[in-house]
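Table S2 (text version). Query chain:
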Amino acid sequence: MGRMQEAVLQYRDLILEAERFLWEHPAPGYREWEADAYLKERFEELGYQLTEPGDIPGFITQIDTGRPGPCVLVMAEMDSLIIPGHPEAQADTGAVHACGHHAQGAAMIGLAAALTEPGILNGLSGSIRLCCVPAEELIQTAWREELRKKGTIRFFGGKIEYMYRGLFDGADIAFMVHASNNPDLDFTVEEGNNGCIVKNIAYEGKSAHAGGAPHLGINALYAANLGLSAVNALRETFEDDKHVRVHPIVTGGGSVVNAIPDLVTMESYVRAKDLDAIIQANEKVNRALAGTAAAMGANVRITDRAGYAPLHCDRNLADAAILAAQEVTEPGRCAYVPNWSTGCTDLGDVSCVMPTVQINVAGATGTAHGVDFALSDPETACVKSACMQAELLDLLLRNNAEVADEIVRRSDPPYDSIQEYLEVLEENERDARAVTYEEDGTVQLKW
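Corresponding structure-token output:
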């Protein structure tokens, strides 16, 4: 056992105590104030100076080795899901860590504690930036749009918001570890994940008495039903290898049964493997929504916001992660798996500007995002995770950070800077009514 693992294992009880607290205090994105306070207190007890974003949860702290070299960004997500049917969901909010993000915070505390041990940085070069970050789960998007309008946030996802606020400036490499329900392997790295655009959709009709004078109304619910059918009819036009996913939900379908619904609201993602495929699929979806609104004499307001970029895990960094994992687990219990996930993560945004990898760690059971999800093995998901992360930092930064430098040299992220990437996102945002009815009877569609 190496010195990094020994340093982490001294704090096993602290890690497992944090896992229980964070599990018992879940909150969705940009509401993680209890977890935020707990994590900050633990970090400050360890002697860390924190940089906070101000009006949203989370923080960063930087550890300098005293020798020049790259900056490695290590992240832990803080937010929960909303799964009211989960047996351990909060009674008032339905919040529960049914994706295991609380394990990341627990492991981060162990890693942070280990890095305070005397002499632990000897032989390392560069710097380590530890980050507890909010809002990975892309939920409650209508509420986040209200935060955006108030100026509280600019982006829905926590990592891209941190990028926007400058908290990731100067970082050269990024990684994080996420809980997995794989019973066969303790650590895995996959090829990557889909990205997405976030859509808020409002069909606008005209109310009237549903029994006495329905001919005087314009039924927004019927228009929305047509829109859902049109989107479904598009599915065979999506290329299989682009992994396109469109999955709208109705969030408001009318207020009273005896009035024609004049407003129906929906949310959706448009997901795909690359940004071009996301944009192309989204144009088709918008055209379907606009056309069905016009067919009913209604209108539809479409708000498209930056979701998450596709995550392309850097293969050289992935190989380093697997080597580090081999130091903390039995032979044959870790592997690179060339699978593509059709889920999304805002870690994809980070991968647009620097070599990035997400490592999956075992320890969970049940269905991710499901009512039966549980962290059945916190020893693996938290303690072993912290050990692996410490080993990876050692591998990257020892010997004048030669491994980290080589990964950076060989990487080719899509964008040269965070600013360039943010400008591309802004170009694809929109917020407008899609249908214009002209006085001469013609109808104009924006999409």
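Notes on Table S2: The first strand starts at residue 59 and ends at 64. DSSP finds twelve helices and 19 strands in the chain.
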